Fold this sequence. Notes:
By secondary structure, the protein is α+β, with helices and mostly antiparallel strands.
Amino acid sequence: MTDALDDRLIEAASATDVRRAVAAILKESFDAARVRIARRLDAGGAGVEVAHLYSAAADELLNALWRFTTETLYPAANPSEAERLSLIAVGGYGRGVLAPFSDLDLLFLRPWKSIPRTEQVIEFMLYVLWDLGIKVGQSARSVDECLALAKSDMTVRTALLEARALAGDDRLAADFIARFRAQVVKADPRHFITAKLEERDVRHQKSGAVRYRVEPNVKDGKGGLRDLNTLFWIARSLAPDSPLGARVMEGLLTARERRTFEEAFDFLWRVRAHLHLTAGRPEEKLTFDLQPEVARRMGWRGRGDEPAVERFMRRYFLVARDVGGLTRALSAKLEARQQKSTMSLSRLIPGRKRKLGVEGFIEDSGRLSVTGPEVFTAAPEKLLMLFRTADQHDLDLHPDAFSAVSRSLSLVTPSLRRDPEATRAFLDILAHGQRPYRVLSLMNETGLLGRFLPEWGRIVGQTQFNMYHAYTVDEHTLQAIGIINDIWRGKLKADHPSSSEIVHRIDDFEALMLAMLLHDVGKGGDRGQLEDGAIAARRACDRLGLDPRRTEFVVWLVRNHLALSDYAQKRDVSDPATVKAFTRLVGDPERLRTLLILTVADIRAVGPGVWNAWKGNLIRDLYQRTEGVFRGEDVTHADPLDDYPDLVARARLKGAAAEVLMVRDDEAGEHPATRVAVAARDRPGLFVDLAGALAGAGADVVGARVATAADGTALDVFELQDGGGAPYGQAEPRRLTRLIATLEASAQGGVRIAPAPVATPSPRRAAFDVRPTAIVDLDESPDAAVVEVSGADRPGLLADLARVLADHGLSIRSAHIAGFGERAVDSFYVTDPEGRKPNPGPKLEQLRLELEAVLDRVDRAGTRLSAPVRASLRDVSEVGRRGSASDSVSRAPQAG
């Protein structure tokens, strides 16, 4: 094969365009090799094996190109000392592993300064590689330049640690590698190790400091390949002559840890290879649109109600957790050998230990450790007490203690789960600790939390295949617990002034925190999230020793944890019937207070930018009105027009004319929106015209409220973003000016906007097949039908839905528009042309079918606007209006 390739390249030397001819020959050979490797991957080849094969294919390509360039194109029969040149692979390529579209990191090594022939060789090779579409990270340096840079530049030192001779002068390459390794051995390793760990921390901040983001970066994210590479580099810096730092790894990691390392390394390389091939480019982020195909290629299948993609992603996050444990274990050994410099003064004193009042627990160099794993064998309850002690003394967990806990999980038996001392320690951490998020996260990382609380264990690493949730189920829950703690301590008082006061009026804070911990443990259950969650919560509370009254409270909170969000965002809170129904559901002020805090934390923990002032106002309004009922106040019809009295007054003065107000919502969180309010004389088709104007202008409606006063004045308030998720008109103010003028004309009936063209959904949104549902509820309101629709969100959806309602002669008295990632959930209070509640019958059934058809809309080519991967049923939350005709109808997710 090599001889045949060389012969073809030699023939290309006579071509008119030598470079193009050489590139064509090499491309044919390289592509054929890559096809063979991809087939091996598809056949189940191991990740590291495939990575080695891609590296070997690159080796063959470069060697052939080198031979042609140096022997045929620019030959030197008897090269002088100055003409000596070596081609060396560095970085990951030097280690002999590549992904399908990885860069090639190359060093052209010369003995000293460059000469013309050297420059010709390097230039031709690089141009051919670029012609092949290969991205090359290259440098051309002398031996002394490399050695000098490696002393001061840790990035250069890192790359050279993996140096591997590819072609050229063998003696030059061998002498350089030997001198470099000798230099590394003489150097103080602490500076390099510290630099690598600091570099890792910076990388984590850029790619996402949380390990459990649902669209992880396989290469650079926390728990990804780069973290394992960092361990390789550290090991190699301690033993540069040992292949892959194996000798150091054997000394720093146990056999079990090395096995975990190898399994994680292989899994992540396999994921990365499939990810590159699926995307057709060097994509490192496992985005929603790529996850289903990568899962399929890796052989994952759905099980029960859990789709293949969610099973695959759970495995991914469990591996990411293992990578974190390996990093801790390595750090422990490095510190024991005093080879890692540290920033903390307490840790600069070798061997500093302090007893902490619990037998077997010590403070070791500023962190909590144990005298040995026998501490837990003698008293298993100390597994829980260890973490309470860490919280009490505000200490991080020493990696030795971390490993000791992980190795002692078999001690967590049914009797320990009911042990009063162990359960007391657990509840203290959860409800009375200083930093419950940090401590519970540590417990989760060791595996103790899932072992002690089996209900929790089933959601560790669990993902939800939707765009609404940014984190795995367990990480979302832990963040929610941290948010409650922040509210309690007044850290979020600026965002939640009333909640910061209300939280201190809650009588049973332990019940709140237990409910928060358990609120999502029913996800994926056969009976639905809420019912299965309530069953699991009862089981957990009984085992923890709660009395029946407190257990019932926790169970109620878990079963109804979505109720406040559901009522506030999808119902007309100004309607006394809504407030009365919610009051009946809640039952007493303590439940109301507790549910408020739980709801706020749950929504905030969904992901960045999910909580905003719009949602906050809706939830606060319902809370205040319900609280008033408990104080004995009459439930009256609130006038939502009061929030915009000047605007409404001006519209009334103008009669049929319309008034439009635009305000920036500066409190809308990370992803704010532009708020536009329209006040006008109500008329048939008003909402349709306004929604059509917004769709025609390319405005994405992310929230809306519609209300009509008794005198016929309508107020329509919209929260708008552009296609990129920014406030509408922020980048182009003139677009907003034109939109306001169009809305004024549309409100007055002076212009009709043509329907917006069908937009192609973004690849991320297209990854989800959202089941469309529509219901018509005649029991919710005494004087209107409530139409609720749920389906895949898309531009122009609101206008299309409103048009169907108008075509049926229905007037929209109130509208409540909300988006939950890829899913839109819209509710409309509608009346017939005479202002009365519609009568049941075939007309309403036809309305429902037409609305579902709009939600399931197809483009002109006959392709559904939703995509072929269906999210699991648990992605649809089941909170309903208790006792209404729609209790059994699935609903979109509001919070966790």
